[in-house]
Amino acid sequence: MRITERLLLARKLTAKRLMLASSSLQAGTEESWTRVMALKLVHRFPQLSHFSIQRISVGPARLLSTSRQSLCVACLCTSAGRCIRRQGCLRLQSNCGIRSLTTTIVREPSFVASSSVGLHRDSVPRFQLTLLHRPTAAEEQGFQQRLGICSSSRQVFKLLHSVEIISDTMAAAALHRVAEVEQEDNALRDPTVLEKDTVRALCFQLEQDSARLTDGGLVSALLACTRLYLDPWSTLMVRLVSESQTRLDRGQMSVDELCTLGQAMLAIEGPGGVMLEQVMEEIQRQKPAQWSLAELVAVYKLLQGILGEDGKYRDLLNAMHTHTMTVTSRMDPAAVSGLLSALVTLNQTQAMPLVISLCKQAVRHVPYFTDEELTDVLGALMHFGHSDHYFVKAMEKYVPTMAFTSHPETVSKVMQFFGRRNILSPTVFDAVAESFVYRADDYSSSQVAQQIVAFGKLGYLPPNAGQMFGKVETILRTRFSHFQPRTLLNLLHACILVKRFPVNFVSKVFSSYFLQQLQEEDTIIERSVLAQLTQIYITVKLECPSYEGPRLLPKYRVKSFLMSGRSLETPVDPHLYNSVKAGLVDLLGDRQYFGSKVLTPYCYTLDVEIKLDEEGCVLPASHVDEVYKRIALCIDGQKRFTTNKRQLLGKEAIKQRHLRLLGYEVVQIPYYEFEKLQNKSSVVDYLHQKLFPHTYRLSW
């Protein structure tokens, strides 16, 4: 179906919604007639207009419902809080009718459109149209600042009662703030907040004045309603959507207003909506080079929510990336975090220059990010595989100040970032380890695992390792059933990497029930998972001789830890290996005297193996009998160490530890020593000193 046809269909549906809504407004005919007569009375006698006509939030809409007492004509024509003719309307006290919040009331023609509403200080809020001008920019800014510090809907309502005049944008901002403080897990924490008189009155006024609202106020109000989860078929929502369609057709909305409307329609119709497509067409007609920073961020966030087809907006995104590179230095913490998060969702791997530029700007904002923003930034840097030296330094200063107070997810993300990027920072790890002892009970099972896995991966034990792992054992004992099988396996495997042996829980891991759970998660258990199980089994066998629990069945064991993907061994660096191999040939006299990439019975692969007889003579690699001693040469390239320190990763440390327990003499050839050698002679001398430190070298 073409776009124009879909637009016509959408308008027909909107018209149908309005007709349905209008039919619901014809209830209470007598009351409506009374109101109309009262308004005619005011029109006939203009002096009565000085009293103003009150807008009373009345009966329930679909999501905003409550009962109310109607007012008589005298009440309607005055600003009194109750009937002025007698102590309440006796005729109406016994007739508490229920009507829709979105009831239409005929306006007095003496009032002009101003997109501002006055808020009375009565116990029940009432709004009225006013002849006053919109609040000044300073007044709006002050209102927004006070609104930003409101931490509950009650405080928002109190703020609304304290101001004389609010504009449509201020009213919408108030609804947004109510949504922010009440939202919890894609729902309202307290749905009855929609029944509050202030909310009902605001919604009622926005409905009645939808045609008079500014473009910005209109789309912001619509978005606020979606965040409050109002019924899309309610008269309020239908009117706001219909009016937004009219404004959109005029083609005069700003980029920021288009993005706000797009977010609202995304919530109402989803990413395939007709109005949303029209919004994107309007945005694509604009030139990103002319957009402000706020507009750039708004478009990125909109694209983050709607991008369904790969490459659909590629040209627009590329133009935005180019312009964004020129303004990153002016971005605040929220903008940096928001853009990085959008780039992750959009999977813009080709925009690495922009990611690097945003990371540099993030260095300045590290102490000022909110927990949620910092979490997004760290997640993006992990996604794109980027880390900055200055960013790490900034984190080292900041983490000790936040480890005890930040959200558990943020602390866990910090550890996940350092672990994923192989960055060993004792400052960060020690601070987190100390806070873990005191905060572990607040962490979920996955958050506990994320933090401990980082220690295991980098092979680092903090000063309070005893306390920290004691806390881990307590959590495992009390919350064992809370852990997902894969999460539990990752946690236990991390423990053995740093010589912490979870003997009390190994029997449960090797049980048929646990292995069956692993198999239910994946139809076929991944080789990396089987490798972890095998390494735990080997660790128990080599380092925990007192263990007498169940063994891991052979069908769950792997033969080699060296595999593609999540390997438990780091493949040898080819360039470094070839250089060492050439030196060994010169040292030993022939290539036959050492083996390469030798697989041991215990699943580890040796970079180089040299066999010696009882007298210390080198045997050919193919020799099987009379082998007295085996030398395992570990050619450790840069990837086997942490990125910022000369410390072996946990998986390399456990490999060398196990090889020694298996009887091998482990000789390490680290890259940072070998790279200093200048010529062949120095290489041969170095290898001789490493392999045979107490033997005189012969020249072949």
From TrEMBL:
Domain called RAP: residue spans: 631-689
Pfam families on file: FAST_1, FAST_2, RAP
Keyword entries, A-Z: Mitochondrion
Domain of life: Eukaryota
InterPro entries linked: FAST_2, FAST_kinase, FAST_Leu-rich, RAP
Localization, UniProt: Mitochondrion
An MF annotation (GO) of this entry: RNA binding
GO biological process, one term: mitochondrial RNA processing
GO cellular component terms listed in the entry, alphabetical order: mitochondrial matrix; ribonucleoprotein granule
Name the record gives this protein: RAP domain-containing protein
Organism, as annotated: Amphiprion ocellaris
Taxonomic lineage: Eukaryota, Metazoa, Chordata, Craniata, Vertebrata
Gene name of the encoded protein: FASTKD3
